[in-house]
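Supplementary Text 2. Reproducibility record for the structural model of the 156-residue chain.

All settings were left at their defaults, and a single model was retained for analysis rather than an ensemble. We include the record here because the model underlies the residue-level annotations in Supplementary Table 4.
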Amino acid sequence: MKLAPLRRRDIRRCVEIEKQLFAGDDPWSVRAFQSELDAGGYYLGAYTDEDELVGYAGLATVGRPGEFESSVHTIGVDPAYQGQGIGTALLRALLARADDLHAPVFLEVRTDNDRALELYARHGFTQIGLRKRYYQPSGADAYTMMRPSHSAQEVS
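Retained model, structure tokens:
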């Protein structure tokens, strides 16, 4: 598996994975992914040796040097490839990007997504808030989580 910048030609595959992962809520559309890429977000794809997209992740950053903040906008891994470290690799790549900018990282995650909660906790995220009925149409709650900024030297 290799990580590389997400290619526009892979957006439809992202949408297929979204529909599998988030069927009970509002999976991202082609237009949503296009908008994120157009906005300049940092998006990565996880590709097999056969160049098949099996996961994706995106990080948005706002602010100016010395005051940047980043948000994980999405991480998704094809269910057939879960449990192989792909989500961890994608998250670590996003965090490395935020670390380069000395930016704290925020995200929202379903309160019932134990696997993701464990992943985020292992990478220094703590719960800082609760968003009631955040995910629609299911009405599932989300935790807001944050990881303080780290410099590249602190992380090594």
